[in-house]
Amino acid sequence: MLDKINRIKEEIGSFKAAGHAELEEFRIKYLGRKGHLNVLFEEFKAIVGEQKKEIGQGLNELKTLLSDTYDRFKGELDSGLPVAASNDLTRPGDSIPLGSRHPISIIRNEISAIFGRLGYTIAEGPEIEDDWHVFSALNFPPEHPARDMQDTFFITKQPDSVLRTHTSSVQVRVMESVPPPIRMIMPGRVFRNEVISARSHCIFHQVEGLYIAESVSFADLKQTLMFFAREMFGEKTQIRLRPSFFPFTEPSAEMDVSCTCNGKGCNLCKHTGWLEIMGCGMVDPNVLENCGIDPDKYSGFAFGMGIERIAMLKFEIRDIRMYFENDVRFLKQFTSSF
């Protein structure tokens, strides 16, 4: 009986189905009610002794081989491909649809390229940080609300560890390890305990920048940001700096860019003609001193922007949640962007 099983296996190995009719003959011959497989199982019932286990295992393997062979040829014939062609290793492969860059990646690369033309290099740091690099070195007082559990994700088993709320922590690491002059941008993912809505998310991406050297002034900051705005949004773009407050810069400002409605007013700019895109300012001397840089010799400026916000303005995206849903219909729209 084992010889019969092995002989049928050899026949299956050399079988080729040129069409559905030939495949049906195969099914009837081997898998039909009166086919070889059923005949063998009937004979198996009369087997006794030690051989029964070995023959039973062989029959099960034969049954699996027959079923798999039939299903494989049927699938190939149903697909419309010639069976011979499907086994041809020299046949060109099936085309694979190309994906596209994510809008966040597109804008991050564009921002990096713009500042790269000004001589800025890229610095990165850990997403899980300690209190010093996220808060203390940046002049955040102990009672600041950002240190509250409702505002920031702290790690319970490591009380001093926190998911960074901004990439300013990378600025601190750079200032601690790199002597001036420093001219770097810090792109990366950050986390805040925000209610997820069309305009906010607990995860988002930032690009922060830092320039420290001798005799750096607020005029240098304004000119740098003007260059960035016109490279990103068009040469007719105007900027506006409004006084603000950040613990790590003094003086500080919010920067707005002119809306694409050209001052006529629209829903995007809430009929003001301006869109806020970033915060900026001169690095506070206390921050320089905390990081081991002499504030009497060096000065500098810093700025930070949300990549999602820039992408929403560039691509007119109305819901920030779309960045994280991985909807192919949404992502396909950016195939030809860059």
Task: Outline the structure in words.
The structure is a single chain. The chain is an alpha+beta fold and 338 residues long. The protein has two domains: 85 residues, no CATH class; 232 residues, Bira Bifunctional Protein, Domain 2 (BirA Bifunctional Protein, domain 2), CATH 3.30.930. The protein has twelve helices and ten strands. A seven-stranded mixed β-sheet has the order 1-5-6-10-9-8-7, sandwiched between helices. The chain has a three-stranded antiparallel β-sheet with strand order 2-4-3. Helix 2 packs antiparallel against helix 4 and helix 6 crosses helix 11. It is elongated.
Can you tag this structure with a few keywords?
alpha+beta, elongated, 7-stranded mixed β-sheet, 338 residues, BirA Bifunctional Protein, domain 2, 12 helices, 3-stranded antiparallel β-sheet, 2 domains
What is this structure, in a nutshell?
38% of the residues lie in helices and 21% in strands.
List the helices and strands and how they pair.
Blueprint lengths: L1 H12 L6 H12 L4 H9 L6 H28 L4 H4 L16 H14 L4 E2 L5 E3 H4 L19 E2 L2 E6 L4 H10 L4 E10 L11 E11 L4 H16 L5 E8 L2 E10 L15 E10 L1 H6 L8 E8 H9 L12 H4 L7
Parallel strand pairs: 1-5
Antiparallel strand pairs: 2-4, 3-4, 5-6, 6-10, 7-8, 8-9, 9-10
Helix pairs in contact: 1-4, 2-4, 3-4, 6-11
